[in-house]
Amino acid sequence: MPAPGLLAVRFLCGLFALAVGAPLVQDLLQRRALFAADAAGRIEASMVAWVIACAGVAAFARWQPPGLPLRPLRLLPTLGVYSALALPWWGLFVAYVRTLAATGAPAAAQPQLRYLADADFARPMTWLFVLGTVVAAPVAEELVFRGFLQPALRPRLGAKGAIAATALAFGLVHPPPLALPAALLGAGFGWLAMRSGSLLPAILAHAVHNGATIALAIAWPATLDYLYPR
Predict the structure, then answer these.
(1) Do residues 170 and 182 touch, judged by C-beta distance below 8 A?
(2) d(C-alpha 44, C-alpha 26), whole Å
(3) What are the angstrom distances between the C-alpha of 152 and each of 53, 125, 142, 166?
(4) Which of 71, 74, 111, 147 has its CA 20 to 30 A from that of 176?
(5) Which of 152, 198, 139 is nearest to 9 (CA)?
(6) Do residues 74 and 43 touch, judged by C-beta distance below 8 A?
(7) In terms of pTM, does the model score above 0.85?
(8) Is 168 exposed, middle or buried (0-12, 13-18, 19+ CB in 10 A)?
(9) Are 106 and 127 in contact (CB under 8 A)?
């Protein structure tokens, strides 16, 4: 495994690509008027930029490998473990966002979910949106957090401490009202990676989770208004 310090540098490079590189690419796309200036155009530009940034992270990881291998993957056991983790998470998530709404400080739905709820699947951009959410994001984010950061922290913090610290960092890159549930979800992904000694289970669980979320938004758009009152 690469040295912890080297993994930490790789984490910072990957995080920079996602947190800084993607917005810069989005700004470039919009400056060149490649997308409409309305809200939908901005969201589409952001997704194209995000997919480009995620591809950059994946290419970077081919050159500078993560601290965990991408194999093995036991498909059915991984799905079973994810399901056992996801069911209580969804219950806690619904209770959390409804509590926020009841206190007068409701969380806002991510614009991407609103976009997908109203999306026209005759447009190729919609399918790119789904691909970016279900494939590109899980691969890149798991490489950065569970591939680079978690193994970098493990020698100093131990397995549980590294999972917790990485989950906290994962939560903090999400919008503030959703940081806590994102951190809990990240802890589950981190545990899957630690338990299996492989990144693929975490990537698969992340992809299934994102896929389930957008399927819910597309099939039952009313759930967005229930979870995120406007």
Answers:
(1) yes
(2) 9
(3) 22, 37, 14, 10
(4) 147
(5) 152
(6) no
(7) yes
(8) middle
(9) no
